[in-house]
Amino acid sequence: MIDRPAAEAAVRELLRAIGEDPDREGIRDTPRRIAEMYAEVFAGLHEDPAALLDVTFYDEHQEMVVLRDIHFESMCEHHLLPFYGLAHIGYIPSGRIVGISKLARAVEVLAQRPQVQERLTSQIADLLMARLRPVGVGVVIVAEHHCMTMRGIRKPGSQVVTSAMRGGFRDREATRLEFLALLDGRGRA
After folding, report:
1. Distance (Å, whole) CA 99 – CA 120
2. Domains of the chain
């Protein structure tokens, strides 16, 4: 769990470092608020996403299952600024299916850590391959990064698109194209 007193002390020092008085009325409670926020937005550091996929169900369904438009929010580990967008997951079961909400929850847990989008995309795909042992997995994430829109180059509306294809999604072009077609242009964040 987060060390709230240490986080609060660090925020007080940061406020001093930028030339602000941490005891000023308007920001006196900011260190506590920031510590509480970090406990919430980084909660995934203390959860095992694999455990979410422990309960599966036998089913002979061998066609593609797609869950799209999974909204997520994460924090860029380079600047501790938010990035957010939509994750899309597809998999072809090989005898076992999982509750659809568990897929969305796995995205949430992995996103609630200091992250980079590229790693998040791969982590989702690798987790599903390891736990569900499907024929294949496809993951596409489209996100907007505040580290690029509110600082630095300052290009609001710019989106980063990442994908991870595993098993049949990587090996079979027709499968990959079917997955991408099923996203139906919904990749916008």
Report:
1. 21
2. 4-41 (no CATH), 54-182 (3.30.1130.10)
